[in-house]
Specification:
Layout lengths: L3 E6 L13 E3 L21 E2 L2 E2 H8 L5 E4 L23 E3 L5 E3 L5 H11 L2 E6 L6 H12 L5 H8 L10 E4 L12 H13 L10 E8 L4 H10 L14 E8 L15 H12 L1 H15 L6 E9 L18 H16 L4 E7 L9 E3 L5 E3 L1 H8 L7 E3 L1 E5 L2 E2 L6 E2 L1 E8 L2 E8 L6 E8 L3 E9 L19 E2 L2 E4 L2 E6 L3 E9 L1
Helix pairs in contact: 3-4, 5-6, 6-8, 7-9, 9-10
């Protein structure tokens, strides 16, 4: 049996892995908000001020660092004043992007901030550039973050909130190349500068203004935004109108988003999915190369604020609601993404999976009867909590078998490692589907011992959890040893694993 060999340097640290790489995304789309986070105060499902409590309890175990809202495409048709004040007086709107359903605005700014407080998450508010105005976004910032006597602070108090909130992250529109307005990079860049200028910092609330950038590797957007951001030739990021640039990247099996089944896939489709997941490293490098040319001091952050798998909807569900199952394959996609994110943590400072509940690669699937299922992707997030704000450790695959079919030959093993507070966390993703993979990792520079090792897998790569079988895919203990400075662990097929070490 072929052994995979790797090395981790325990005595040399790289950049800090921002906890915000484990961010989440909640859009007014399908059952993410309504029937997911929000059930209303009169629901028989246990809730606090309308927010579903079992969802909050489950997500708190992930230490959610930030939550992006209200979109997505929905953000660029959302007008925040429609979602404040007495609910019975709030106007309705049509959600033209997602199902053409009527939005009653029951879940608005105050409800979102309440949710963030309950989760312990920092708010990431995505403003409306597509159909909104500069004044509208400027007043939203004031409404949320300004104390004292001002028009928006008075309005907030009239709506029941005396003190302002801290809201650090602000998105300047979404997918300006598509649903956000079908703009050119140059036109959007001018708009982004204008909107960013009027997003003011009130009462010490420092803003990270995030410009909406590319789809995948369309670096024209990165070029245009970086040229504008650094036009003063000054390294101070406060002189840039925005402090970060985003891009979006979705994984599929090769024929495009929303065209393939989440649970019924061939070996070829599996391999191509894994290949697409690995491909995000090339995409990040392309954006980094452009950003480094303009900004070698890395004062502007890169943000991947939408990522994940995008399959066909489950049969019998609304096509506009994007409800899909979540399998072992999805968990492996997440494992690979996080290894890549960790390697690029010096520039990549935030990422948001799409989406948290009931939409695309969700953490949790719920139903209207009170059922709740934790997905395989949820467990990857939980197993990786130790990486939050830890220091990346150099981790290298020295040799590994190749897996896949045709032209999709891929490394069977992906890994990353980090250290914090005298502990080390090693994450391992084995994408082979036929055989177990013995792994030997040379731990260099320090002595270490195993504290805990867990593995996540299922009967096959399509295995998933349901209300009838909620624990088909869940983490279980796996044997791992350190002898003579070598960490050994045997990984079953299609598995994600973490090994927690203590440094001696």
């Amino acid at each position: 049996m072929t052994i995979a060999r790797a090395a981790v340097d325990l005595d040399a640290t790289g950049p800090q892995i921002s906890r915000h790489l484990y961010g989440h995304f909640a859009e007014h789309l399908g059952r993410c908000i309504y029937g997911g986070f929000w059930v209303g105060e009169n629901s028989p499902i246990p809730n606090e001020r309308g927010i579903r409590l079992d969802v909050v309890e489950a997500l708190r175990r992930l230490h959610v660092p930030n939550l992006r809202w209200p979109g997505g495409c929905f953000a660029d048709e959302y007008h925040w004043r429609d979602g404040v004040g007495p609910r019975e007086s709030r106007p309705t709107m049509v959600n033209t992007n997602w199902g053409d359903v009527v939005e009653n605005n029951a879940f608005g700014t105050h409800e979102f901030m309440d949710l963030c407080d309950m989760l312990g998450a920092e708010p990431y508010v995505n403003g409306n550039v597509g159909s909104g105005t500069v004044q509208e976004m400027s007043e939203w910032v004031e409404y949320l973050t300004r104390s004292g006597d001002s028009p928006m602070a008075r309005l907030r108090r009239a709506n029941g909130r005396d003190e302002p909130w801290r809201v650090p992250f602000w998105g300047l529109g979404n997918e300006a190349w598509g649903c956000g307005g079908h703009m050119t990079p140059e036109y959007y860049t001018s708009l982004a500068r204008r909107y960013a200028t009027f997003c003011k910092e009130h009462d010490g609330n420092t803003l990270t203004r995030i410009a909406a950038g590319a789809a995948d590797d369309d670096v024209r957007w990165t070029h245009a935004l970086m040229a504008s951001a650094m036009s003063t030739n000054a390294p101070d990021p406060q002189r840039s109108p925005f402090q970060a640039i985003s891009f979006h990247y979705y994984t599929h099996a090769g024929t495009g988003i929303q065209k393939e089944s989440a649970t019924a896939f061939s070996r070829d489709e599996y391999a191509r999915t894994i290949g697409k997941a690995y491909e995000i490293e090339r995409v990040i490098r392309a954006h980094e190369a452009v950003m480094d040319a303009y900004d070698p001091e890395r004062t502007i952050d890169l943000v991947c604020d939408e990522w994940g798998t995008w399959w066909s909807v489950e049969p019998g569900t609304n096509p506009g609601f994007l409800f899909q199952q979540n399998t072992v394959r999805d968990a492996l996609v997440a494992g690979i993404h996080f290894d890549v994110f960790h390697r690029h943590a010096a520039r990549l400072r935030m990422a948001n999976i799409a989406q948290t509940l009931n939409v695309l690669q969700a953490m949790i699937l719920t139903d209207d009867d009170g059922g709740l299922v934790l997905t395989p992707t949820y467990h990857v997030y939980e197993m990786n909590v130790g990486h939050h704000d830890a220091m990346a450790l150099p981790a290298h695959v020295v040799s590994t078998p190749a897996v896949g079919v045709d032209d999709a030959q891929l490394p069977a093993l992906s890994l990353s490692a980090s250290t914090k507070d005298g502990a080390v966390l090693v994450s391992l993703t084995h994408v082979g589907v036929d055989d177990a993979l013995p792994v030997e990792i040379d731990l260099r520079g320090r002595n270490a011992r195993v504290v805990r090792a867990r593995v996540l897998t299922g009967p096959d790569a399509a295995a998933h959890n349901t209300p009838q079988a909620p624990d088909t895919v869940r983490p279980v203990p796996v044997e791992a040893t350190v002898e003579a400075g070598v960490l050994r662990v045997d990984l079953p097929p299609h598995a994600f694993a973490t090994v927690e070490l203590a440094l001696d």
